[in-house]
Design goal:
Length: 235
Amino acid sequence: MALRVVYPPSCVGCGQATGEPHTLCGRCWAGIRFIERPFCERLGTPFAVDLGMSLVSPAAMADPPVYGRARAVARYDETARTLVHRLKYSDRLDLAQALGSMMARTGAELAAECDVVVPVPLHRWRLWWRRYNQAMELARHVARLNGRPVEPELLARVKRTAPQVGLSRSQRGDNLQGAFRVPEAARPRLKGRRVLLVDDVLTTGATANAAARALLRGGAAAVDMLTFARVVQES
């Protein structure tokens, strides 16, 4: 009889031994800069000072997003970037459960008010090349842990866009013009529903705005945004 080797649980970030599977070790956990209140109620960006009340940042008032509210687990810095890149580019699907679990907790308030969870879609050629959509893998865990359905077919990416990396804010917006659409067959199921849109990272907000705009035009009552990480401009 062949012997089966059982390996101890390891950190999904660095591979160090941990007490439970699909978790982070203490070192990786300590490297994540979590976003906690006080933060802007629209953008989810942290405030330096707690004024004891819910506030909207000047940036959100000057340039309101298309989506209603955004929440993210962490700042998009070294540790968060490493985790996202491993999930996105290195076939590390085991990371989706760990990151998705953190997102489910961070976005619990938004999930409680939504009717359906929708991942930001990839264009079919990029999905063929990458073989999976990291946003869908994260959305699956967010939806399951919050008791909500996940319906990726409610939003399609119909335009093959250039990579967003290295583009300015205005260039990102132009690049995503007309990129998303609600399929005609999905409109009756979307109409009047509150959507929680899920992605891995929020940078300038161009992708989130373009996807949210398409969902609202397609009949959604409201759209909120949940990501694992987001870029935060340090003051």
